[in-house]
Amino acid sequence: MKVQEHFCLKDKHSFHLNVTARYWAEYRNTDELGEILQDKRFYKLPVLPVGGGCNLLFTRNFPGLVIKSAISGWDIVHENEEEVVLRVGSGLDWDQFVESCVSQGWGGIENLSGIPGLTGATPIQNIGAYGVEAKEVIRYVEVFDRQTRSLLVLPVEECGLAYRNSRFKQEWKDRFIVCYITYRLNKKPAYRLDYGNLNEVLRSQGGLQEGPEAHRGNLAMIRRAVLAIRSSKLPDPAVLGNAGSFFKNPELDVATYSALAERFPELPHWELPGNKVKVSAAWMIEYCGWKGKSMGRAGVYPKQALVLVNLGDARGEEIYNLYQHIVADVHKAFGISLQPEVVVL
Ligand code: EPU
Question: CA-CA distance, 198 to 196, in Å (whole number)?
Answer without folding.
Answer: 6
